[in-house]
Specification:
5-stranded mixed β-sheet; single chain; 93 residues; 30% strand; alpha/beta; Glutaredoxin
């Protein structure tokens, strides 16, 4: 399954469904986000048993604030409603 775009209203349901969920917090203007996006999409297609979600921090400021996002891209991993990891990556060439 490819990655899915998630709105603030859908976030809680996504996390409470259980299983493993990766969430990519990104923005259109973010250069590193644009570099990471195709990689994230490719990996999402290789692991259909995992949910790969994307949240546009500009459009969904409420969830970005609630998640404590201060830098992007930020990748969060959840399993069964618990945060497993938070990773902030600044990609450099």
């Amino acid at each position: 399954m490819a990655s899915i775009d998630v709105k603030s209203s859908e976030f809680d349901a996504l996390i409470t469904e259980g299983g493993i969920v990766f969430v990519d917090f990104w923005a259109e203007w973010c250069g590193p986000c644009k570099m990471f996006g195709p990689i994230y999409e490719k990996v999402s297609e290789q692991y259909p048993e995992i949910t790969f979600a994307k949240i546009d921090t500009e459009a969904e400021r409420e969830i970005a604030t609630a998640a404590g996002i201060t830098s992007i891209p930020t990748l969060m991993a959840f399993q069964d409603q618990a945060v497993l990891a938070i990773e902030v990556k600044l990609l450099q060439r």
